[in-house]
């Protein structure tokens, strides 16, 4: 464990994560300074009166006198003040690093990826829990990880974002995996996808086993020759899919394990997620009987390729969690042989996404684009022959309902962030659910 006494500490960011960092220090009778770039952060009223704080733009003179900066994942390390702090040798870490420094003799499974990490983490949590293991799921999902230190655990499942991995140095895990790496958060990583990838790869540091995606070379560790790697993939890899007598099976080292018809989750990309969970579960020695039983029961998470309903042979899918194009494409692939049209809802705030990667699907599949929100008009302008634009999703639904037919799919998978019209993807998804049920 680290000793933070006699250190001058500043916590930057007063969101949920920042507050957990502040409370971490207060429990140790250490009072940090608090900074927040916002003028009125929503959790300011949760800050004890004796903790000093300052609001507004981050300035070099605000932080140069501190020994340790604990920064929330929402703030880019490319902020000029943080760049200067790093240059003069001030230590900069985040909540995950604080957590890892405290952890002793407890197993960790670490999961990251551009898409699918919440589904994989939650499914694995259910298996561990059903196996009688005292397990805690934390990180980029649920409770801030520092708030769980008071709880007894035999296993931690950490879902980690690239933002969190930027400030992690002491993570050590039994197994770690990068599910996929795609163009996402490029507005934050100005050097491009390789910078984004470099932070994802940190998850492999000090990991006993690296679980890599053979379909995505960006998930390979730099020093894979010296690492123990196990692989998964669509149709190649140690854990992969096998076609047998007209059915699709999960397989392990060439041996069929489970017919995908027995899996409750919907969609091919979710079968890949199950392969990942199966691999990690095998590494952690969970019994196959429990693993396969949970696969047959786990319905998935809300807003992630969620089957809303199927009425009049029209399928409604809520995939609001799709905030990047690769996630939308993963959803779309499930309908490549659909007899009717796929009414694909795209819109929100584009994150420097190259929409050209959508082209091959647009022209191969039977697709109509329904574009909305801040960048919806721009998206619609790229595909004028097959798209319509309205400001809101409800306006679009009203327009298309008279022409939607039996066999069609209404796929709400926006490929954009939601902050133009909603607080987050959950609010956006709930909005779509209300409309889907209304109409």
Automatic annotation (TrEMBL):
A GO molecular-function annotation: UDP-N-acetylmuramoylalanine-D-glutamate ligase activity
Keyword Cell wall biogenesis/degradation attributed: yes
Residues reported to bind ATP: 113-119
Enzyme Commission no: 6.3.2.9
Catalytic reaction equation(s): UDP-N-acetyl-alpha-D-muramoyl-L-alanine + D-glutamate + ATP = UDP-N-acetyl-alpha-D-muramoyl-L-alanyl-D-glutamate + ADP + phosphate + H(+)
Pfam families the record matches: Mur_ligase_M, MurD-like_N
Cellular compartment(s): Cytoplasm
UniProt-listed InterPro entries: Mur-like_cat_sf, Mur_ligase_C_dom_sf, Mur_ligase_cen, MurD
Domain Mur ligase central: 111-280
GO cellular component entries: cytoplasm
Pathway: Cell wall biogenesis; peptidoglycan biosynthesis
Keywords annotated in UniProt: ATP-binding, Cell cycle, Cell division, Cell shape, Cell wall biogenesis/degradation, Cytoplasm, Ligase, Nucleotide-binding, Peptidoglycan synthesis
The family this protein is said to belong to: Belongs to the MurCDEF family.
Cited function: Cell wall formation. Catalyzes the addition of glutamate to the nucleotide precursor UDP-N-acetylmuramoyl-L-alanine (UMA).
HAMAP family: MurD
Protein name: UDP-N-acetylmuramoylalanine--D-glutamate ligase
Species in which this protein is naturally found: Candidatus Purcelliella pentastirinorum
């Amino acid at each position: 464990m680290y000793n933070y006494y006699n250190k001058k500490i500043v916590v930057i960011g007063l969101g949920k994560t920042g507050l957990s960092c502040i409370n971490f220090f207060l429990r140790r009778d250490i009072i940090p300074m608090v900074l927040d770039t916002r003028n009125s952060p929503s959790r300011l009223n949760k800050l004890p009166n004796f903790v000093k704080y300052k609001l507004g733009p981050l300035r070099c003179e605000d932080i140069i006198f501190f020994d340790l900066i604990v920064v929330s994942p929402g703030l880019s390390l490319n902020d000029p003040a943080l760049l200067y702090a790093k240059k003069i040798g001030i230590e900069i870490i985040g909540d995950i690093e604080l957590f890892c420094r405290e952890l002793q003799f407890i197993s960790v499974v670490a999961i990251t990826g551009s898409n699918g990490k919440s589904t994989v983490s939650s499914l694995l949590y259910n298996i561990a829990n059903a196996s009688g293991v005292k397990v805690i799921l934390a990180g980029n999902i649920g409770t801030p990880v520092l708030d769980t230190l008071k709880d007894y655990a035999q296993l931690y499942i950490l879902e980690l974002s690239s933002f969190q991995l930027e400030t992690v140095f002491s993570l050590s895990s039994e197994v770690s995996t990068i599910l996929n790496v795609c163009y996402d958060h490029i507005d934050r990583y100005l050097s491009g996808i390789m910078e984004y990838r470099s932070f994802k790869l940190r998850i492999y540091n000090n990991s006993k086993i690296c679980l890599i995606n053979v379909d995505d070379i960006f998930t390979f560790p730099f020093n894979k020759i010296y690492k123990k790697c196990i692989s998964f993939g669509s149709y190649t890899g140690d854990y992969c899919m096998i076609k047998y007598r007209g059915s699709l099976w999960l397989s392990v080292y060439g041996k069929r394990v489970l017919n995908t018809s027995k899996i409750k989750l919907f969609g091919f990309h979710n079968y890949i997620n199950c392969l990942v969970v199966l691999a990690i579960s095998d590494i952690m020695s969970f019994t196959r009987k429990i693993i396969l039983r949970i696969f047959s029961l786990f319905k998935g998470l809300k807003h992630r390729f969620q089957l809303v309903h199927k009425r009049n042979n029209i399928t409604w899918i809520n995939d609001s969690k799709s905030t990047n194009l690769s996630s939308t494409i993963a959803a779309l692939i499930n309908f490549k042989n659909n007899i009717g049209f796929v009414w694909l809802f795209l819109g929100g705030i584009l994150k420097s996404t190259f929409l050209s990667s959508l082209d091959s699907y647009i022209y191969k599949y039977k697709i109509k684009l329904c574009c909305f929100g801040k960048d919806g008009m721009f998206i619609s302008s790229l595909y004028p022959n097959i798209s319509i634009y309205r400001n809101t999703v409800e306006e679009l639904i009203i327009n298309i309902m008279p022409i939607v037919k039996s066999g069609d799919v209404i796929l709400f998978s926006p490929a954009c962030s939601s902050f133009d019209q909603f607080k987050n993807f959950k609010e956006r998804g709930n909005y779509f659910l209300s409309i889907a049920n209304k109409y």
